[in-house]
Amino acid sequence: MAGTYSSDKIKISIKNFFLLEVSSGEKKFMKNFFSNKATVIMFICNHCPYVKHITTELVRLSNDFIPKGISFLAINSNDAKKYPEDSPENMKKIHYKLGYTFPYFFDEKQNVAKYYGVKCTPEFFIFSGKGNLCYHGQLDDSRPNNEIPVTGSDVRNVLHNILKGKNINLISKLSYGCNIKWKI
User: Which pLDDT belongs to residue 170?
Assistant: First the structure.
């Protein structure tokens, strides 16, 4: 497991891509899942221990905020040939096993990860309903074996502030996890 930090030079707006959504087995436009309140885009995968450490909170977080009009999308951009645990077939199994309430997309050509400048899993982006980036980085301070509880506090705080109508300038808190498994 090669650990790395997320980029600290992210200044982008939300963008639509046409990707395989694994639970349905169909290619879909990401924009069909964007919200006019806020959209959380999570770069995750199946094999990363940093992602495995937070999956229960991902489900809890999405269950707490989807009913309030905030959308969640998960994207796996890893090379599935070198990391078969991250294949679309295995993504679908994990989607159902863990009870993901959000779409889980496979970024086969890695164009989405390149556009967003993603460096690790997990890595989070929160966009306002207008498509402006409000937050980039970690879920919270918890990591495997650091004994800090997984709460999703960094993402939760931003989402609570969005729901309260607060104007949010870009907040960035470096995430740490497994590097994206790029194709050569």
Answer: 86
